[in-house]
Description:
- Helices cover 38% and strands 23% of the residues.
- It is of the alpha+beta class.
Amino acid sequence: MNYELKSTLNTQHAKRDAVLAARSANRFFCIGALHHALCSMRLPVRRKPNAECRFFQSKIRNLRSKIEKPATRNRYLASGIQNPVSSIQHPETGFTLMEILLAFLILSIVVTTILGSFNAVFSTTDTLDNSGKYYDMAKSCLNRMKTDLEALYVAQPPLYKKPEFDDPPDNYRFVGSTEDAGGIGFAKLRFTSRAHIPFDSADRGGIAEIVYYVQAKNDGQMLLKRSDHLYPYPEFEEKGSDAVLCRHVKSLAFKYFDTDGEESETWNSDEDDFDHATPTAVGILLEIGTESDTVAFETTVKLPVHREKLE
């Protein structure tokens, strides 16, 4: 009886020591504490352990298996060897809101830069195309004017006589004036020249009356036109059939130079103010284009003949 009581007391003390050891000892050294507790148990020598002892033995085995797993991981870390199980990486999927906004910001900057470059290239191309078109048109116009002026015809004395008060105007007079077209003042020039342009095979040659003037179209475009008529010269009037020398005219001006090199913006060889003389040279200032893109051209034509001042 004493032996049974002593065994029971020993068992209870062993239980208490095992529980205290499991609670207080470090998880990495619990096995040693439990082993010490088991060794201190003074159980009776029996062939088969009782149920209570088997219960505690199973608890100790479970606790040992749980403690050995992190201990194995610590051994991998201490030895510098990567745990093959923990080396498997599980990448995160998706993007954060900040990453998406940043991507859109970068994309918008790139697209804006590209579109700006394309606009600059296209604008430059359009400007060059327009400039080339205006240059060709102005070149053709000025060449026609130069041809007409270099074939100028002027009546010289004694064929030409100083007119009286009631005499009709000279058929071969040289007149440069300014007239309004579309609310803008443009130069107008009338003279006679041998550079007549026949429109059919039956048209004969001769001294033609040529008039340069600017006509406004309904769409606001200004046209520089050339009137060409053989003798007898009709009273001048603007016609739709007159040849167009230049389109998109922004300004047109003539400068007339006398024998002394003095220049004037107007001229009339039938008036006393100019002593019934004709100029020695004519300067042409032509500007064509649009509101945003204009090109200016200037040239001077030396006239082949002129009439001196009459006293």
